[in-house]
Design goal:
By secondary structure, the chain is of the alpha+beta class. The chain folds into two domains: 76 residues, Orthogonal Bundle (Arc Repressor Mutant, subunit A), CATH 1.10.10; 81 residues, ADP-ribosylation fold, CATH 3.20.170.30. Helices cover 31% and strands 18% of the residues. The chain contains six helices and nine strands. The strands form three sheets. A three-stranded antiparallel β-sheet has the order 1-3-2. Strands 4-6-9 form a three-stranded antiparallel β-sheet. The chain is elongated. Bound molecules: ligand HQG.
Length: 182
Amino acid sequence: MNETNKKRISKFLSLVLRHQPEHIGLNLDKNGWAKVNELIEKSKTKHILFSFPELEAIVVTNDKQRFAFNADKTKIRANQGHSLMTIDLQLEAIQPPEFLYHGTVAKFIDSIRTTGLEKRSRQHVHLSEDRDTATKVGSRRGLPIILSIKSLEMHNKGHEFYRSENNVWLTDHVPVAFIEFQ
Ligand code: HQG
């Protein structure tokens, strides 16, 4: 399978595993898992065709490791990024590093200065462990602006942090007091 096709299927997987399983009538359990066989079969209804080995290749080579299999590879889920509020990834709250980073763009800054970082359509605010990753996240929307988040201080004041399987840091809301603007 060529890279273009892999990317197309990866985007489709993000859609049905994070946002709209109903697009193909896919069942996700409460922890976000779909049955691999059901996914392969129901994807065909939208003319998205892939075999199990092809799915494995997409999961393994995915640039952000967006998806994971269970131990016997009969189930698959997205590691983070869900907008479905009912999905519980069962992540454990852990202590974050002193600083985490958030990549955004200029047009959002005034609003962020007012309300802090909000999760918008997703389950969590997404934060990156390093500036390079945050720069890539911000670049999806234009010239990136990187905000430094005083994550350890937040944690010490009772805010919970989670790290997804693919190393994205997640929290509920970042109040303005913990944001260092450039
Ligand atoms: C902004 C991608 C105005 C926030 C990425 C962001 C990430 C505010 C946008 C993952 C705001 C939400 C998540 C406020 C936050 N006022 N704007 N108060 N608070 N925003 O896509 O962090 O490729 O939901 O700055 O790489 O950009 O899909 O979040 O610009 O890991 O796997 O509102 O999605 O991963 O946008 O990206 P998003 P994000 P994937």
